[in-house]
């Protein structure tokens, strides 16, 4: 009895000491917190914030690849970039490529996700088969398809010849449309599994009871898809669309390797133009930085618009 | 009878989906077989054999040199990602400190700035830091762009650990650091494997960052392969290119198949974010 009550009188006396200790603890916690967060802060500052400020500075400066910084010239770089003969064609091509890729990839990924949704052994195998291409690098995948499309060694040209579509010696990458669609096929192959997995996670988050209730109410398969699956999948679809649009707007590796922007600059994307301005055509880092800033601003705006329109909840 | 009917009824499904799987696997199988098959313009003209791989071994510094560069870049990127994201995730999950929310948001903001738009200033900035044309520089840049996902992932992993676990260690006289090393690291291991895997796949396969930041002897394998293809004027050695693709792909596919569960888990938490 006495042992259980004896600590009680001490409680009141303990209060000031406790808050003191708590303050000390919080102080130490802040110190420790900063200690653990320092590497993050350092890396983010040195390799993210500084380059971000530097790109703004360079975009307003006369800065050539070999000559270095020769002082401010704002807004000359921006004017020169927009007046460059490849600027509008590359913007137009990038947008076209983005719309085509996103439309095909997202609808196909949704179909695939619904196909492999149930967990059976066969569907598990299917999932793995669809996911294997996502382990390849974009550069390796592009090199792979470069060989696949080549009339010398690849099976594509002979197959098109047999179907009577083209001659066996014609390179499918030789025309603008051919190059565009060949690249879209490569990207769909490489990324279908990726977006399938994202949508699959969303599909599995829809509770079974909702489907059962709809079926009891006599809803048809199509109605269930349009009225239940699609609306409830909206967050996942939004995430996939945003990722796909952003990735496609920034397309570089696939065109750099497959088409080098050709034929005649017709498959040049905006990000490729940045590289070309910096190291190939103009060797002007100021102009390249100005185009980087334009791309960055466009991306931020496009993503904000997408977030606003896609993330709205279904009942709004 | 009904069972037979069911099997017959499902045959179109198996044929269709089997065909689909085949289409997705075909390019990889085709490259692997072609790389050892005879083809004109390569070193493997008649019969099956390893001629194309021999071409790779003898290309400039040899495939081992470029593979070594790739390994170093990947190692720097993976190690940096693991260490920084673990410490950062621990800080964000367990401590209160001024500027915490700001720093976390700033880290996530990297997602909004794709590296394609900051590579031009990075060329200049890394030179100022003395890291231009170095493998370490490339590895660090790649690590920074892994940080949003990795830090987020580790923060969630640490937050999911019950506080009692480390409090027991703290009461036993451990500091927060030894509590982290001795207790928490074991619990968040799945998260570490996931972010390590993603960092490796990104760094191993990256083409654009090394294209901007390194040249010559310091090229990793993807960049060396693309340049090899371009250097032989007129005649492209497709055989050697295919062999190179196989060399690049094998580690990724093996890692993917072994760690598939962790790969999928990465998507689970990635989707939570959206």
From TrEMBL, chain A:
<keyword id="KW-0472">Membrane</keyword>
<comment type="similarity">
    <text>Belongs to the binding-protein-dependent transport system permease family.</text>
</comment>
<feature type="transmembrane region" description="Helical">
    <location>
        <begin position="31"/>
        <end position="57"/>
    </location>
</feature>
<keyword id="KW-1133">Transmembrane helix</keyword>
<dbReference type="InterPro" id="IPR000515">
    <property type="entry name" value="MetI-like"/>
</dbReference>
<keyword id="KW-0812">Transmembrane</keyword>
<dbReference type="InterPro" id="IPR035906">
    <property type="entry name" value="MetI-like_sf"/>
</dbReference>
<feature type="transmembrane region" description="Helical">
    <location>
        <begin position="237"/>
        <end position="258"/>
    </location>
</feature>
<protein>
    <submittedName>
        <fullName>Sugar ABC transporter permease</fullName>
    </submittedName>
</protein>
<dbReference type="InterPro" id="IPR050809">
    <property type="entry name" value="UgpAE/MalFG_permease"/>
</dbReference>
<feature type="transmembrane region" description="Helical">
    <location>
        <begin position="285"/>
        <end position="305"/>
    </location>
</feature>
<dbReference type="Pfam" id="PF00528">
    <property type="entry name" value="BPD_transp_1"/>
</dbReference>
<feature type="transmembrane region" description="Helical">
    <location>
        <begin position="97"/>
        <end position="116"/>
    </location>
</feature>
<keyword id="KW-0813">Transport</keyword>
<feature type="transmembrane region" description="Helical">
    <location>
        <begin position="179"/>
        <end position="201"/>
    </location>
</feature>
<feature type="domain" description="ABC transmembrane type-1">
    <location>
        <begin position="91"/>
        <end position="306"/>
    </location>
</feature>
<feature type="transmembrane region" description="Helical">
    <location>
        <begin position="128"/>
        <end position="149"/>
    </location>
</feature>
<keyword id="KW-1003">Cell membrane</keyword>
TrEMBL record, chain B:
<feature type="transmembrane region" description="Helical">
    <location>
        <begin position="104"/>
        <end position="126"/>
    </location>
</feature>
<feature type="transmembrane region" description="Helical">
    <location>
        <begin position="71"/>
        <end position="92"/>
    </location>
</feature>
<feature type="transmembrane region" description="Helical">
    <location>
        <begin position="12"/>
        <end position="30"/>
    </location>
</feature>
<dbReference type="InterPro" id="IPR035906">
    <property type="entry name" value="MetI-like_sf"/>
</dbReference>
<feature type="transmembrane region" description="Helical">
    <location>
        <begin position="235"/>
        <end position="259"/>
    </location>
</feature>
<comment type="similarity">
    <text>Belongs to the binding-protein-dependent transport system permease family.</text>
</comment>
<keyword id="KW-0812">Transmembrane</keyword>
<dbReference type="Pfam" id="PF00528">
    <property type="entry name" value="BPD_transp_1"/>
</dbReference>
<protein>
    <submittedName>
        <fullName>Carbohydrate ABC transporter permease</fullName>
    </submittedName>
</protein>
<keyword id="KW-0472">Membrane</keyword>
<dbReference type="InterPro" id="IPR000515">
    <property type="entry name" value="MetI-like"/>
</dbReference>
<keyword id="KW-0813">Transport</keyword>
<feature type="domain" description="ABC transmembrane type-1">
    <location>
        <begin position="67"/>
        <end position="259"/>
    </location>
</feature>
<feature type="transmembrane region" description="Helical">
    <location>
        <begin position="138"/>
        <end position="158"/>
    </location>
</feature>
<feature type="transmembrane region" description="Helical">
    <location>
        <begin position="192"/>
        <end position="215"/>
    </location>
</feature>
<keyword id="KW-1003">Cell membrane</keyword>
<keyword id="KW-1133">Transmembrane helix</keyword>
């Amino acid at each position: 009895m006495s042992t259980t009550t004896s600590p009680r009188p001490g409680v009141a006396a303990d209060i000031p000491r406790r808050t003191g200790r708590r303050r000390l603890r919080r102080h130490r916690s802040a110190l420790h917190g900063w200690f653990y967060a320092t590497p993050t802060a350092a890396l983010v500052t040195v390799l993210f914030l500084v380059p971000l400020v530097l790109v703004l500075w360079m975009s307003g400066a006369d800065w050539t690849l070999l000559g270095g910084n020769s002082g401010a010239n704002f807004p000359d770089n921006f004017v020169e970039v927009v007046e460059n003969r490849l600027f509008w064609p590359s913007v137009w091509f990038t947008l076209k490529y983005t719309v085509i890729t996103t439309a095909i990839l997202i609808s196909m990924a949704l179909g695939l996700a619904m196909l492999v949704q149930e967990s059976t052994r066969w569907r598990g195998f299917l999932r793995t088969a669809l996911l294997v291409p996502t382990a390849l690098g974009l550069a390796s995948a592009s090199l792979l398809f470069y060989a696949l499309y080549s009339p010398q060694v690849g099976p594509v040209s002979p197959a098109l010849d047999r179907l009577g579509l083209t001659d066996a010696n014609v390179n499918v990458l030789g025309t603008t449309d051919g190059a565009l669609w060949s690249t879209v096929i490569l990207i769909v192959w490489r990324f279908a599994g990726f977006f399938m997995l994202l949508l699959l996670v969303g599909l599995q988050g829809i509770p079974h009871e909702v489907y059962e209730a709809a079926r009891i109410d006599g809803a048809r398969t199509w109605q269930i898809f349009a009225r239940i699956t699609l609306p409830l999948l909206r967050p996942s679809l939004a995430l996939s669309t945003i990722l796909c649009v952003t990735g496609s707007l920034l397309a570089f590796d696939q065109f750099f390797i497959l088409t080098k922007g050709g034929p005649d600059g017709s498959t040049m994307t905006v990000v490729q133009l940045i590289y070309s301005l910096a190291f190939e055509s103009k060797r002007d880092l100021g102009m390249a930085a100005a185009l980087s800033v334009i791309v960055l601003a466009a991306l931020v705006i496009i993503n904000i618009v997408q977030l606003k329109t896609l993330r709205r909840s279904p009942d709004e | 009878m009904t069972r037979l009917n069911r099997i017959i009824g499902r045959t179109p499904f198996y044929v269709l989906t089997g065909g689909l799987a085949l289409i997705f696997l075909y390019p990889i199988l085709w490259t692997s077989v072609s790389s050892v098959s005879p083809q004109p313009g390569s070193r493997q003209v008649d019969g099956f054999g390893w001629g194309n791989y021999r071409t790779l071994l003898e290309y400039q510094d040899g495939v081992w040199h470029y593979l070594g560069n790739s390994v170093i870049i990947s190692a720097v990127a993976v190690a940096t990602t693991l260490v920084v994201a673990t410490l950062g995730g621990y800080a964000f999950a367990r401590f209160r400190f001024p500027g915490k929310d700001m720093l976390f948001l700033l880290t996530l903001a990297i997602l909004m700035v794709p590296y394609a738009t900051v590579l031009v200033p990075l060329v200049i900035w890394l030179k100022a830091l003395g890291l231009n044309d170095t493998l370490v520089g490339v590895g660090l840049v790649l690590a920074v762009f892994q940080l949003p996902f990795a830090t987020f992932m580790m923060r969630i992993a640490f937050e999911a650990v019950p506080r009692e676990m480390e409090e027991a260690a703290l009461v036993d006289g451990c500091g927060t650091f030894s509590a982290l090393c001795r207790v928490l690291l074991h619990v968040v291991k799945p998260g570490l494997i996931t972010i390590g895997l993603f960092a490796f796949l990104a760094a191993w396969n990256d083409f654009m960052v090394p294209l901007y930041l390194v040249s010559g002897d310091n090229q990793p394998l993807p960049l060396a392969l693309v340049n090899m293809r371009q250097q032989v004027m007129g005649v492209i050695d497709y055989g050697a290119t295919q062999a190179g693709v196989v060399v690049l792909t094998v580690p990724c596919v093996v890692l993917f198949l072994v760690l598939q569960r962790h790969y999928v888990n990465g998507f689970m938490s990635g989707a939570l974010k959206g």
